[in-house]
Amino acid sequence: MRSPYHYLSMPDNHSTDTVRVRIAPSPTGFLHIGTARTALFNWLFAKKMGGKFIFRIEDTDLERSEKRFEDDIIEGLRWLGLQWDEGPYRQSERLDIYERSLRELLDKGLAYYCECTKEKLDQDRQAQQQEGKAPIYPGTCRDKNVPAERGQVIRFRVPEHETISFDDMIRGTISFETGLIGDLAIAKNLRTPLYNFAVVVDDHEMRMSHVIRGEDHIANTPKQILIARALGFTPPVYAHLPLILGTDRSKMSKRHAATSLNEYRMQGYLPAALVNFIALLGWHPLDDKEKMPAAEIIEKFDINRVQKGGAVFDVQKLNWLNAEYIKEKTGADLFAMLIALYGEEKVVFHDAPTTVRLLEIGKMRMERLSDYEALRDSFLPHTYDGALLVGKKSTREAAAVHLSKCQEIIRGVLVHEFTQENLEAMLMPYANNEGRAAVLWPLRVALTGQERSPGPFEVMGIVGKDESLRRIAEGIEKLNGPSSAA
Length: 486
Ligand code: GLU
Prior knowledge:
Layout (H helix, E strand, L loop, with lengths): L19 E4 L9 H17 L2 E6 L9 H14 L5 E5 L4 H13 L3 E4 L3 H13 L22 E4 L6 E6 L3 E6 L6 E6 L2 E2 L1 H11 L4 E5 L5 H11 L6 E5 L2 E2 L15 H6 L4 H9 L14 H7 L10 E2 L2 H13 L3 H12 L1 H4 L4 H11 L9 H6 L18 H16 L8 H15 L1 H13 L7 H8 L1 H16 L6
Parallel strand pairs: 1-2, 2-3, 10-11, 12-13
Antiparallel strand pairs: 4-5, 5-8, 6-7, 8-9
The structure holds glutamic acid.
Glutamic acid (GLU) binds next to β10.
């Protein structure tokens, strides 16, 4: 049976052309990947519907809220490109507004002061648990008329025998029995509202049409609907996003992957790749396409097609997407990003133009910007055993002959023509004649000292003529000298 408070999908005081949604994080920790997902889905919905995206900081819990967390959240949302249209509003700056509504509820008898101590509440809870009952506030102070001075908290009077239902855009109709809610604390005092209360007042004051948030808030929704009703507000339309799971399908935690957005930034994930990946945490387009820029995601986004079941956070997919986005960047783009991320000292190889060229060549092998260190490393000289110069099917003598011949050819290349392409054009005829592996293996090992590395022409193009010849001469020495004994 439908209760009179079964809200249909669009409240009548809001029309579709005034979609207003929000991200309302509590600054009690660094920007979490789950909050970033909630922000993104709200932002996408606002963009899709031509609505507004509002940013509100829920900092009424003064003990746990910190400025550094607020800064991290603001910076993270900006970095992702989730620009808000209004805000950030801070609940700590809106205490007068909450006080007004708290007084209204107290005056109407819809809220009351409760003097139960924490010890008393703990005892009640234990007794209820022993009797196998749900642990809810037993209503001790409901009709006691406790004066404000003795109040520990202000409680909201929840009607006892009612069903509260709402149509969730993702999960369909959800119903709760009010008897299982119990009178809930809505403020510590007139100047200290608690979450469920402040949210209702703000969602109304800020004219939210829809509330899109994580599944962990479902149990709060009937409480918020009741408070809204008591204040004469029409509640927004709700949509609860699925949980984010690790690959083992348990709730995602640090055990599975980094949970703070900033960690992803520092590891060199690009914002566009993260936005793309996060959009797929619970949603996918009809055509199942995976790599999509934000504009295409907005075009295809449909909140009604968000899944109910948990969304698996697959780091390998993120890595694949990130590599795709890295490939699209120029060496100069990547150079600028790396400098911004890690600083010049850690990034520049020889000089800026050389580093840009190195990135141009190496970007195909990078999944994350942090892979740059290993990439750059592969162009540095390494100590190695001379035996490595002799390819599997070659001999020390043959390797020495081929290296010497290469040395001779390379000496003849002018410094200003010393490019990967020219070197390839000059050396490949010889390699094709003598056998590619026989020639290119010792050449590459001499240049890099590594079993696996970028190709010899790439390396020479980056490290230049003098350094290439120095490395080759050292290789020849190893093959001829006593230390080369394989
Ligand atoms: N401040 C709440 C949180 O950080 C979100 C509130 C809401 O979306 O209703 O989880």
